[in-house]
Structure formats: C-alpha cells, structure tokens
Amino acid sequence: MTPTAIGLVAGTLTSIAAIPQVIKTLKTRHVRDISVWQPVLLAFGVALWMMYGVLINDLPLILANIIPLVCNIFLTGMKIRYSNDDL
After folding, report:
1. What is the pLDDT of residues 17-53, one digit of tens each?
2. CA distances (Å), 75 to each of 8, 22, 60, 83, in order?
3. Residues 6+ apart with CB under 8 A from 29
4. What's the whole-number mean pLDDT along residues 65-87?
5. Which of 42-80 are b and which e, b meaning 16 or more Cβ less than 10 Å from the residue's Cβ?
6. What's the DSSP call for residue 47?
7. 34-87 adopts what CATH topology?
8. pTM, entire model
C-alpha cells in the first residue's frame, strides 16, 4: 500500500468515525454516557489540524477534518441540549 493510499484510508476512517455516534444520539436523545470533554477536545484537535492544513496549503488535510469537526461540534451541542432530559 502506498503512503498516499494509507493517508486516504486513514483520512476517510477518521472523518466518518463520529457519524454513528451522532446518528445514535439524534435517534435516542440519550447523552448520559457521553463525556462532554471527548467531542470538545476532538473538535478542538481537528480544528487545529484543519488550520495546519490551511497554513501549509494541504487541501486533503483540510477536507479530511471538516466532517469530524462538524460532527464533534454537533455532539457537543446535543450533549448540552439533551443533558437535562437524562435526569
């Protein structure tokens, strides 16, 4: 496997990793078992990776971080919104 292929597979997997959690949380509105810090820290980390991609003008790096950034911001919002519903 070439380095480019490995990078594409890695970028795809990390880009879609949060989607199942977003879908499950949307369906169940159950957030008790989700730590608010996990999606906050991941969103911050992928935002930094995206900024790094902008600084070095690396379009694949920028694109690979858009979906996880949106998903983790969305998860954080659902955690805050639905936390009172779990009480």
Report:
1. 999 999 999 999 999 888 999 999 999 999 999 999 9
2. 25, 6, 24, 12
3. 78, 82, 85
4. 88
5. bbeebeebbeebeeeeeeebbebbebbbebbbbbbebbe
6. H
7. Monooxygenase (1.20.1280)
8. 0.84
